[in-house]
Amino acid sequence: MEGNRERNADAYLRMYRQMLRIRVFEENAHQLYLSAKMPGLTHLYIGQEAVAVGICDALEPTDRITSTHRGHGHCVAKGAGFRQMFCELLGKSEGFCRGKGGSMHIADQENGNLGANAIVGGSAGIATGAALSAKRLGSGGVAVCFFGDGALGQGLLYECMNIASLWKLPVIYACENNHYGEYTHVSEMASGDLLDRARAFGIETATVDGQNVLEVNEAAEGFVSRARAGQGPFFLLLDTYRFHGHHVGDISREYYRAKEEEELWKSERDPVSNFAKWLRGESVASDDELNRIESEVRREAEDAVEYALAAPYPGSEEVDMHVFAEAG
User: Fold this and answer.
1) How far apart are CA 114 and CA 99, in angstroms?
2) Is the C or the N end of the chain the one with fewer CB within 10 Å?
3) pLDDT surpassing 90 at residue 8
4) What's the count of helices (H) and strands (E) in the chain, helices before strands?
5) 140: alpha, beta or left, given left = phi > 0 and alpha = psi -120 to 50?
6) 299-308 per-position pLDDT tens digit
7) Does residue 276 sit in helix, strand or coil?
8) pLDDT at 249
């Protein structure tokens, strides 16, 4: 794992803390589901933490992102607090969407997160629109569209990349290739070179090890800086892996991926533990420092879960609030 020696220790530890916050948040979300305290399903981001943190650390608070059904990691990395997130998962009124969005529809406008999206590839138009807005307003803002390899089968993505290239919009399309679109390996659903899909529109591309937060961050910083300068759009392909199933109910996965494959990624390519090893090896942080950070993060999560469990639900008078429909 390479690092920029000019960066100070605070920057590295900030990224480590954020990666750990995502991991711990997801572990707690999983337990809430297993204990039947959380309604619905959630799609765990464990294993992909370096992608969200590496990219979001390169952004300004005013920059925009769009997320996916596997969106907790992006939300945390962009600055969201645990209390509001857990309240949202539990359907409580203090959640980001007053408990009405749930796991797959968290939006945090204050921190530039335009929202998770349960529709595969559904946020491509939102991110591209945010980039168009930034360009028209001259704000210097950048938009990042996170999506999985499964979205490569969605026509909306290609329409958006086409218009983004024609209008030179400041948007980065970040494809998290975790190798499986639900239960199907990417090789069985996407033919040819994945990067060619963006190259066809004249978009510059790069492939990055999505388990290496420093490599992700370096690539993101380069593209973000150039996008601000009017040289966008860009396409970033991140090789990563989800350690759990497609969703929390996907427990036995051997019918579509081998147990040995999972164990290899967990033991050798865990982005959190590998970054911790690098921090120790480069004398950026001691074991005591890393243990202190982990203790703080776990206490933060425990407090947030306790708070969310005790928080009130929305009142019945809100049943039709924030609901929009066309008249028939």
Assistant:
1) 16
2) C
3) no
4) 11, 7
5) left
6) 999 999 999 9
7) helix
8) 83
